[in-house]
Amino acid sequence: MNAALLAGAVVGFGLYVLVRALFPARPGLAARMAALDAARHRDLEERQAGRLSPTLEKVGGVRARLGRELVKFYESRGWRLRSVRADLAITERSLEAFLATKFLLPAAALVFIPLVIAWFALLGLGSSVAVPAWICVLFAIVFFFFPDMQLRQEAQARRQDFRHVVGAFLDLVSMNLAGGRGVPEALMTAAGVGEGWAMHRIRDALGNARITGQTPWQSLGRLGEELDIAELRDLAGALALVQDDGAQIRKSLGARAASMRSRELSELEGKAGERSQSMLVAQLFLCAGFLIFLAYPALMRVLAS
């Protein structure tokens, strides 16, 4: 009965996918405009770079083609994936590789269904195909969400590092302003002091602002939107409001840097407290196991008598 239900569900899902592939839903005007803007932006980037991105060059063959097709499919439906794009931007990955991985991992789990069935048969665990098939389906579901969890964790760690760099960057800008430099010169000088991927991103954003004719704070705000860094967006707004008052900018930047350091210190103290609590729970479990080990022989002797 379970095998028949599973087979019917698989056939029904296959028919649904076939019908949707043969007769796709017509996207609305917003979806078409979003797909057009995304395609134009992608073509412009390829013409400027003269080649594909280094991350995409590592993705070869079928995976790259599958990723491009999936991106086109998402864009035609108007699916923005803003949070995923921000996480990919800060981890320096491509959307094509991410979507291809989300598709290929569950597909690989489903492909292994016959092998798992044969393995169960060799071990003598039964001739029913329902249990190994459901095991592979559960693994496919886990593999589908695994890239999202991994990407979110890595992006969270890199955002924490970026916030730390932004705090140091604000201190450097404040010191350059105190030395008599203007706001654009202070930003460029502060960005040229440090190294690391976060400072390189800030330096590239300021350099692109000079080439495209934008103000430095507009470029920093756009970088904050791209990477989902609230501190950069707030910094861009503050610089846009007080761009002509150097003393006010110094005070604002100093206060922001101090608040960021205080918040980072509070987060570190909170993480340290959580780890201390987890260690305490582990010690309590160890003590309970040791007490059970000591009391077990006496308890067995009392019960036997």
UniProtKB/TrEMBL annotation:
Membrane topology category: Multi-pass membrane protein
Q: Which UniProt keywords apply?
A: Cell membrane, Membrane, Transmembrane, Transmembrane helix
A Pfam family of the record is T2SSF
Type II secretion system protein GspF domain: residues covered: 169-294
Q: Spell out the InterPro entries in the cross-references.
A: T2SS_GspF_dom
Instruction: Name the major location.
Output: membrane
The reply to whether Transmembrane figures as a keyword in the UniProt entry is yes
- Where found, per UniProt? Cell membrane
Cell membrane as UniProt keyword = yes
Q: What is this protein called?
A: Type II secretion system protein
> Taxonomy-wise, where does this protein's organism fall, top ranks first?
Bacteria, Bacillati, Actinomycetota, Actinomycetes, Streptosporangiales
